Amino acid sequence: MGINRYLLLLLMGLYACQHKDLSPEPQDYSLSVPGNFPVPAVMKDNPQTKQGIALGKLLFYDKRLSGNNQLSCASCHGQSLAFTDGLALSTQGASGKMLPRTAPALINLAWANNGLFWDGGATNLESQAFGPLTNADEMNQNLEELVSELNQVPEYVNRFKSMFNDTIKAAYIVRALAQFQRTMISGNSRYDKYVRKETGGVFSEKELQGLVLFNTRCRSCHTGELFTDNNYHNNGIDNDFSNDALQGIYQGRFRISYNAADLGKFKTPTLRNIALTAPYMHDGRLPDLKSVLEHYSNGIKVSATTDTLLLGNTQLSANEQTAIIAFLHTLTDSTFIHNKDLSEPVIP
Prior knowledge:
By secondary structure, this protein is mainly α. The protein contains 12 helices and 2 strands; from the N terminus they run ααααααααβαβααα. The longest helix is centred in the first third of the chain and has 18 residues.
């Protein structure tokens, strides 16, 4: 009797060990914030957990999220290019049609507190995800069909149950995606080592010259350690916004706010890893950093909403442009693009 009781307890212990990872309590996760960064806001409605991040990572790379099972989020946001696709206007969406805007880099999104998309059309990462998921020209997914498809995968069923104590729902899918994307933190470039006085933080004379020029010429929009003010500006890329053929897609923030003062304003992108994320501007029209500097120096198109900071204060000599570009290359974070915590996992 004593032996049988011992065997029963042993079997129960083995069963518990085998299944302890299937439904653990969600464990809180604190973002690893670089020392020179501000503290990100806490998402009370979708707190970071280890399980939620792991689930979001699987979903980010899973092609089941597209209607034809051929596209994942990573198809247009590749890690080696700082989560961009290297294209101006992509045609790799479900319809094969050319998209009207370039895929933005996914960098330091935990601090993106003033809207997502180039025009701020989504308020947060959770709501943003529904756009590409359901857009006919992007992933073209029916959310009910997606839920049904994921329900056929036992690992997903277990993970959603563990994370949300519920069955799989579209709202949980985007929450998990958002949790993973908020871990895409880039703050270990040579620039960061320089400002934190760490080993490897050495600048050349040209890079130092570029830093000084950048601070006096570019910091008004590319502010702080995030290198973005998370705001919207008309940077003089266009001066005619009357073309309404694509539902105002070129009218920028005005498309969302209907405020005439927002015509042609687009969100300030971060400049972190900027050397990896060509081409540039909301439609990818500028192929390289030299073209960007030439635009600001000699190509501003003036309209009623052009940012006044760009008027009469942007001309740069060839030497100054070269120096700024040299500095911008110090913002490349090789640990970010090789971070295995962000890399493609084995999809169940």
